[in-house]
Write a structure and sequence with these properties.
411 residues, alpha+beta, Beta-lactamase, two-stranded antiparallel ribbon, 12 helices, 16 strands, Diverse_Enzym_Activities
Length: 411
């Protein structure tokens, strides 16, 4: 088990210790107002942890507190892990960013694209461009999520069993085949829409590598990085450390336990979701962010070359536009002015347009249960925030956290 602790005086790495305490006070306010079950935040600079903030419960009903070894469902913070796996295969020459995915996933050989109509009666046309690897990595493939509820194709996903999860009984291969039978929202590469693309990417990793996704993650990423408590389920002996999952009570906004979705991470899943299936600890995921900050290497273990990480953390949206311009309104708790999208991460291109004190070049993502992380190469900073409140659009936690961290960075 990785020990997570403050290992540097904040002043030595340019942080004001008193200002950092504003993080604690701010999120303790969420607890006082009974809006969050509990939280844990990690702020590091130059590879050293300068601040840990935590309070509240990992399980309110059992009276169990948040601790540094609490296990969390990271949901879509699984996506960067899957993206790293895919880019490892790119580096090995096994697949190219421009390759059509149908070369390995023949079910996507002849995709059709929605043109008009409803989920009951819709018109489609053949795709004019094949779905390519970079489309999956950037969410520009034309895929979607059923939970968006903004488009007729979203309804088809829900009818097929893809809402807040995967169709029961389907493994990852079956999920890929089922998704391939549904129409695309748009021609590949023409728009951005947050989607199951990273789940299809996970299937691609399996086929190209010849290993199941859990095996690839364990052998090629988690074991080398020392992330021994990250996987598609918590170790049976550690289930008491797995945080309970909550949603806001519709009337009071107080955390309301949701054990149906909270089953994620407690048992082995049928589908290994590269888009949202992992559980992890703060110590483990902190090591993943440090590997990214250091350009693909940590403690002598290199997963990716620095040029690959820089490519992943660059805006790949055509013309360098931002998500607010190129994307479709969907799930976010805040606008995406000034943010582009790279190969698995959001990328901050214009802090002024984004109205944030964060640095240009920051790359980041979060999870459905209000978790988040970011990596800031310009300031050598990483930040990690963990809680278990679904959905992430409940409160502007990520926007607030950015301001709280950067107001404390004074040197």
């Amino acid at each position: 088990m990785l020990e997570l602790k403050v290992d540097v005086d904040p002043a030595e790495v340019g942080f004001d210790a008193e200002r950092l305490k504003r993080i604690d006070r701010h999120f303790d306010g969420y607890l006082e107002r009974k809006l969050l079950p509990g939280y844990l935040a990690v702020v590091s600079r130059n590879g050293k942890i300068a601040h840990l903030a935590s309070n509240g419960s990992r399980d309110i009903e059992a009276g169990l507190p948040v601790e540094t070894d609490t296990i969390w469902r990271v949901y879509s913070m699984t996506k960067p892990v899957t993206s790293v796996a895919a880019m490892m295969l790119v580096e090995e020459g096994l697949i190219d960013l421009a390759d059509p995915i149908a070369r390995w996933l023949p079910e996507f050989a002849e995709p059709r694209v929605f043109t008009k109509g409803s989920s009951v009666r819709m018109a489609t046309e053949p795709a004019t461009e094949p779905i390519r690897l970079w489309h999956l990595l950037t969410h520009t493939a034309g895929l979607t999520y059923g939970f968006h509820r903004t488009h007729p194709v979203d309804a088809l996903y829900r009818e097929a069993g893809f809402d807040w999860g995967m169709t029961p009984g389907l493994d990852l291969a079956g999920v890929s085949e089922a998704i391939a039978r549904l129409p695309l929202l748009f021609q590949p590469g023409s728009e951005w829409n947050y989607s199951v693309a990273t789940d299809i990417l996970g299937r691609l990793v399996e086929v190209v590598s010849g290993r199941s996704l859990d095996t690839f993650f364990a052998e090629r990423i988690f074991t080398p990085l020392g992330m021994h408590e990250t996987g598609f389920q918590a170790d049976p002996g550690a289930l008491d450390r797995l945080a309970a999952l909550y949603v806001p009570d519709p009337k009071t906004k107080a955390p309301l336990r949701h054990d149906v979705m909270g089953a994620v991470g407690r048992v082995a899943p049928t589908c290994l979701s590269g888009g949202g299936g992992l559980v992890s600890t703060a110590g483990d995921y902190h090591r993943f962010t440090q590997m990214l900050l250091r350009g693909g290497e940590l403690d002598g273990v290199r997963l990716l070359g620095p040029r690959t990480v820089r490519l992943m953390a660059s805006n790949h949206l055509p013309g360098g536009v931002d998500l607010e311009t190129y994307g479709r309104p969907s799930f976010s708790e805040a606008p995406y002015h000034g943010f582009g999208f790279g190969l698995g991460f959001s990328v901050l291109d214009d802090p002024v347009k984004a109205k944030t004190t964060a640095s240009a070049g920051e790359f980041a993502w979060g999870g459905a249960a209000s978790t988040a992380f970011w990596v800031d190469p310009a300031e050598d900073v990483t930040v990690l925030f963990l809680t278990q409140l679904l959905p992430s659009s409940s409160y502007p936690i990520r926007v607030e956290l950015r301001h709280l961290v950067y107001q404390a960075l004074v040197g």
